[in-house]
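Long-time lurker. I teach an intro course on protein structure, and each term I like to show students one example going from raw sequence to a predicted 3D structure in token notation. This year I'd like something fresh instead of my usual example. Would anyone be willing to generate the tokens for the chain below so I can use it in lecture? Attribution to the forum is fine with me.
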Amino acid sequence: MPIGPLGLFTVLLGAALPLIDFFIVNVALPAIDRDLAAGTAVLELIVAGYGVTYAVLLVLGGRLGDTAGRRRLFLTGMAAFGLTSLACGLAPTAWTLVAARVAQGAAAALMLPQVLATIQATTQGARRARAMSLYGATAGLSMVAGQVLGGVLVAADVAGLGWRSVFLVNVPVAVAGLLLAVRGVPETRSDRPAGVDVPGTLLLALSLVSLLLPLTEGRATGWPLWTWLLLGAFPFAAAGFFVVERRADRLGRSPLVPPSLLRLPSLRRGLVMLVPFSLGFSGFMFVVAVVLQQGLRMGPVAAGLALAPMAVAFFAASLAGPRLTGRFGSRVVTAGGVLQAVGIGALLLTLRYGWPDLGLAELAPGVAVAGLGQGLQLPVLMRLMLSDVPADRAGVGSGVVTTTQQSALALGVATLGSLFLAVAASEDLRDAAVITVLVQLGLIALTTALSLRLPRTLH
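-- Reply from a regular --
Happy to contribute to a lecture. Here you go:
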């Protein structure tokens, strides 16, 4: 059954919520620290607990949707996301908030893979291209809008809720999403449902946890022994995962991530590019949140509004993307990379020579051009990666894409965020920001070069 406009709007709403919540917390962290006396290590767990759990369970969420029904899992995930958001908003202590965020990440992992899988299973041809472009636009806008919305909500202090409103706002949205999904989202599942790959699931979880958790928490906790032990376990867990999945694929079983799926050039090359793109994006957003509030002394609203030009430019570019790709193919992604580099370069010069007398007007040109470039990259890349994935493997395909994206987002906060904070501890915030943005420029150069290997035409 094809998906209608109401159903497409609803699943895109489900795609927006988890990504908004990954970024909405950045602006709220100072207020959470003041209210709950959290401390740096626990604050980073509030971010990492959500991000790591979300990344670990995404592929499993996609597999469960293939088997049990994507609409059913979408409804379950949406309901759980609303409840866990309520728990976050009512959390009495910092550690309660950490636990609620972990549960919220698990709920998001049930919901998000069903979005791409449903689009893949219920659309074809031009309708699929438009829907995938809208998904990419939604993903990018959500990541920017999360920080803007977070600043507005914290500053508005609705009913004296302060930072709690960044979580509680999800509750009515989740209720509306449930009502809309019941009416508009069709049920789909794989024609060849597969069982849960327990060894693969456990090894993937160990791989992601052993990489992301120590990198996120290491700096804040002083790099204790457990962080090094986990990092040491990562290459063995990752190698074990690959061996187990390849063997299951050869024997005709149902691995969690079939290596044969990665033989699709569009998916494989797109994933390779998605990693540095997402890593640089999330690291940049985290650093900007700190620089605007602590370095330039902006309030939460101003810090959020400083990114509004990026959101507007991203949206405009994503609307133009389908028409441009019809004419120029994947070279639109390359052009987007060049534009993003120009925007981030302009922002780098602004920070270097305009500090500390910077306001919204001075930051807007660089931020807007960067958003324009990002809007030409992410929506097209999302469409490209899943273009050749068979409909009966849509769940696992979307799980692989979203896991890669989410893992890279978490890794970006952990690595670029740690670099920024380490330099800031010995230098000033301006130098830390300049060095971190230089690293992001390197990542943009890498994504632009990798985009030249993407299949030229899209379908």
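Some talking points for your students: Residues 394-426 form the longest helix (33 residues). The chain has 16 helices and no strands.
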